[in-house]
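Work Package 4 report. The design task specified in the project plan requires that, given a folded chain encoded as structure tokens, an amino acid be chosen for each position. We show below one input record used in the internal validation round.
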């Protein structure tokens, strides 16, 4: 039986604590008897325990890797120096990989990370991790994994299609400018829909996500009462390897706070539109769980969602927004697409926590079990 330590840094009263904890517990869905999982939360127990060195596998949760985005990163990262003596299998599962990517790349090399759980494709990772690309065993997880709790809450709060009182729901997140043009697309889409469809027969509920969504219950209650969710690909079109993009955006806004995104972008010589770190959003999966139709700007969606099969596509120029009233009045169309999406993403079990847990256990058992206890060395001359 493998012994696994999940190392996290989750403040008990943080706004996203429940989501972070849910992500950290994914290994509890591993096949029974295959692993023993323990947890260390550095937010409440910051002292390094020498027994951590005895675990077969250590997982660095995204909440620890997010230290790279803090001003005191240089101090905090030194508390991980014990990993230099660790001879088990080190796994990293970062969030928002496009931010501070060079710090992740450097940490992965220094700590000798062997397995990366990433939402991005091979080509995208080449830009993110130039030193470690090709030296990591990568488990691609483009879809945020489903937990039993999410499935249960979604089922409890969804309503029959005929009794849903909102035709089109939109709750875009207010992303900082350093997420680039892609980070602003959700808000732009919501604004365009509100303007174009305000005089239509559609019952609209369009507002910033931060206005009234504070937990899973509130979010699934909104989704469960809506016939469709308006959204787009998630991610960033800017790569901020060392924090320069964030610092420049902050400096430009400090000088002139009322600057728009387009004004800031024009002053940054294309830095906010140079890359395409696009992927699925957790909201997309949440809509599928709620059997709410996805209305999305046509895109790749990590190869998981297909137009007219899993979602209703919109053109990039949004010239077809006016077709939505007729399409969203078609119950048969909505039920056909939502049923197929639910079957392919939920019923199939291909995107749940148990599947990701099995993949990680299998990788460790088949590729790394014999090396546990031996020093890890990378050949950078290769």
């Amino acid at each position: 039986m493998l012994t696994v330590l999940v190392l996290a840094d989750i403040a008990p009263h943080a706004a996203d604590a429940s989501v972070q904890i849910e992500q950290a517990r994914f290994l509890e869905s591993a096949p029974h008897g295959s692993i023993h999982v323990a947890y260390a939360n550095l937010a409440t127990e910051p002292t390094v325990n020498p027994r951590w060195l005895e675990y077969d596998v250590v997982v660095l949760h995204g909440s620890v890797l997010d230290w790279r985005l803090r001003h005191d990163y240089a101090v905090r990262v030194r508390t991980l120096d014990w990993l230099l003596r660790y001879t088990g299998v080190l796994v990293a599962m970062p969030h928002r990989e496009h931010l501070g990517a060079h710090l992740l790349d450097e940490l992965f090399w220094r700590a000798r990370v062997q397995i990366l759980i990433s939402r991005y494709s091979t080509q995208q990772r080449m830009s993110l991790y130039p030193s470690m690309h090709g030296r990591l065993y990568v488990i691609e997880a483009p879809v945020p994994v489903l937990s039993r709790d999410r499935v249960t809450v979604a089922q409890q709060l969804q309503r029959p299609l005929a009794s849903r009182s909102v035709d089109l729901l939109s709750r875009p997140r207010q992303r900082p400018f350093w997420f680039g043009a892609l980070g602003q697309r959700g808000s732009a889409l919501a604004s365009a829909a509100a303007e174009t469809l305000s005089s239509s027969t559609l019952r609209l509920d369009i507002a910033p996500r931060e206005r009234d969504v504070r937990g899973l219950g509130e979010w699934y209650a909104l989704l469960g009462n809506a016939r469709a969710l308006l959204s787009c690909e998630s991610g960033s079109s800017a790569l901020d390897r060392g924090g320069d993009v964030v610092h420049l955006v902050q400096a430009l806004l400090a000088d002139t706070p009322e600057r728009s995104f387009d004004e800031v972008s024009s002053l940054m010589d294309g830095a906010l539109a140079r890359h395409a770190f696009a992927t699925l959003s957790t909201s997309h999966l949440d809509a599928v769980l709620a059997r709410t139709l996805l209305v999305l700007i046509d895109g790749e969606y990590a190869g998981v969602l297909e137009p007219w099969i899993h979602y209703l596509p919109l053109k990039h120029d949004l010239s077809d927004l006016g077709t939505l009233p007729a399409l969203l009045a078609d119950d048969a169309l909505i039920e056909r697409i939502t049923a197929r999406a639910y079957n392919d993403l939920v019923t199939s079990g291909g995107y749940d926590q148990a599947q990701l847990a099995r993949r990680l256990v299998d990788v460790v058992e088949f590729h790394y079990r014999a090396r546990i206890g031996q020093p890890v060395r990378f050949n950078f001359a290769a």
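Residues 378-382 have pLDDT under 50 and may be disordered. Validation will be extended to a larger panel in the next phase.
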